[in-house]
Structure formats: structure tokens, C-alpha cells
Amino acid sequence: MTDEHYFGDRENFRSMEELHKAALAREEQIPEEGNERGPWWMYVIIVLTLSFGFFYMGRYLGEISDRPHVLFNEAAPTEAEEADLDLMAEGRRVYTRLCQSCHQQDGSGVVGAFPPLGGSAWVMEQPERPVKIVLQGFQGEIVRDGVTYNSVMPGFGQLLSDDEVASVVTYLRNSFGNEASEVSPEDVSGMREATSDRTTAWTEADLEAFMER
Questions:
Q1: Quick check: 165 and 135 in contact, CB under 8 A?
Q2: How much is the average pLDDT of 92-102?
Q3: CB 103 within 8 Å of CB 109
């Protein structure tokens, strides 16, 4: 029977060489293991993740710049600039925090317990007196304008810095109708050192004796 009259599978008439070529062609179309192309949705997730990452870093981790030396290589100042101490403003804060509950917002005090600060000679005359009282405190009776006051004021020497003591005393000397000179932190430092051995609150007699030295 001739080929033109044979209706069988043509594969039966291929040579071995043709069969090998066909097998090789099929193998070339199959990607090697590990190099298969992933599904499209995986690439979408990767792109979205990278986009979100760049947005997050730009929003919360600072500026993204092509000139990083401008952002990070500038020399830091060797010393921070010290702001001028505003004695009255700082003194008002200290007074509000520590003194106002006893001496009142207007410095009028409490009759029989805490003497008024407005017009007080102890506040306005020698600055050493109010500084020492703030540092070590005060106790015992005193009489002001015929009124006897007897209460205990704690010392704030361990709590307040020289700047804070200078500020609050300056505030007392220039508030409630008072007018007197400012007190510097250096003044307070010297007074703190001069009374460093004092462990108890001042009484009127002790304070007067100390001031007369």
C-alpha cells in the first residue's frame, strides 16, 4: 500500500532525527526550574508594597533627598546658645507652683498664718533675707501691722536651682506693689554657700542675728 493511500498516524513515518528535534523543541519551551514566571497578582502586590514603603519613609522618617550631605553632614554647633533668663517670668512660674497656695495669688497671705508679701520690708530691703528664707524656710511667730502670724514655711533649697531662687525672689521684690532691685543667680550661689551648714528653718531671732554679722 502506498503512502497516499495510507490513513494511519503520520507519526509512525517520522525518522528518529525528526522525533528528537520535536522533543528538543518542546523542552526549550518549558522554563527551567526556579525561573518560572510568577502570577500577575504577585507583581501587583510587590509594586504596591514598595510604593507604600517609600511613602511611609518619606512621611515619617524625614526627607528623601538626593543630597544627603546637606541634611546630615552639617557640623553641629559646639555649644547650645543660652537664652537670657527672664527673672520675672520664671519667678512667676515658681511662685505659682510653690508659693501661691499659702501667700495667695495677689500676695495678700492668710491672716494669722502666712504674712502678706506686698509692702513687706523683709521682701524689699536686704535681698539676703528673702533668699535665705526661700533656701532654708521659716518658722515661729512674727508680728506684722499688729497681726501675729505663726506658721511654718518649708525651705526649697534642695528643690530649686540658683536661677529659680533668684527668679522667685526677684518676682516677690517687684510684684504686689513692691519695687526693688533684681537678685542674680550668682548672688544666690554665694548665699547658699554661706548658709550651707544651716539644717533648720530660720526663726525671726536667728535671721536677725545672722543679718547683723
A1: yes
A2: 94
A3: yes
